[in-house]
């Protein structure tokens, strides 16, 4: 039987894929200015209940475990704010995971704003080995600038109480920090603060959103890259130039002090691409499509950042999850990350490291007027140009089976090199003040003796 190209695509069957589980949908107890997900509730505004039912929970757990052809299955709970579901919901989730595990090891990640957590939550996280991602944007003035309660109050102190609980109960946690129009000016301060919290794995998420200028109140305000109407970049979005400076400032701090001790997702992904390995994050991968989003009612979307009708795949109560993940439509979505790159990107020296970043951010034109250039292109060019010698050194170390962390000593040795002092003439008075001629005094003593070698 002859298999055509399109048919061959349908045979694509990833051994595993990722799903961002949103059991509370877009519901959240905070009102962060830059949140891209809060308004997604408009998609489901006709529904009376927008929290995940036990039936949908069990059905997803069963289907997700069965669809993963790997020994370890990771569930990622997100929102909105997933803690709004209450602790009993996650006790049931763990019970269902045990019921359907089939001998596979189950792991759980939980991304939260932290403000609803207490000792009971943290005992549960500890006892069940949950990895926690805590959203925090830096020092108090950085964090509270955009991350506010529904009444407009600050949230920083509540988040720090949650982090204290993580330490108390010895819970592994990572930090997720947006880079926005405010905290982009405090790069090193933010990085050093995140280290002080005890975070050993740091993620930076650039805020880039466009809002429609021609919508009614029932429509989504924030639009995707496919939107052809009038739209403008939001005032809380980071500029490309500022984001580039932010990344370089943080990298300079990290590469001198923390390689191998603190893991910054973007830097690790960059090194992987330099080394020729998979980067581990979709935005710097050649293609995407292996990270879906599950809404509260079982709806599946192609991507967590593209929960729009254009990217709706189906519902797990009507179509098996594995069929949605391996569908032609999802394959086409993933491959378009590569196939829609502008010619300008195809000839870029850093295409191997960037791959056009996230399609969601491809909202500007190239210098020649071709659409589809990433809004953050300038930032990544600045960053990749800056890090090239350091990446090349670390790749050399890896190729020689040595630790990339050796780059810190390499930098330190280079920066310790002191310009040698000017050497006096032989018959000049000696700089030491002895009154003797230089040739009869210090010419054979350091530092001048170095010149005689």
- End-to-end Cα distance: 78 Å
Largest sheet: 10 strands, mixed
Strand order of the largest sheet: 10-6-5-4-3-2-1-11-12-13
Strand percentage lies at 5-15%
Number of strands: 15
Q: What does the average pLDDT come to?
A: 92
Taken from the alpha-carbon principal axes, the silhouette is globular
Describe the model.
The protein has 453 residues and is α/β, with parallel strands linked by helices. The chain is built from 15 helices and 15 strands. Strand 3, helix 4 (119-127) and strand 4 (131-135) form a beta-alpha-beta unit. It is globular, with a radius of gyration of 26 Å. The protein starts with a helix and ends in a 37-residue tail after the last helix. The model is unreliable at 1-12 (pLDDT under 50).
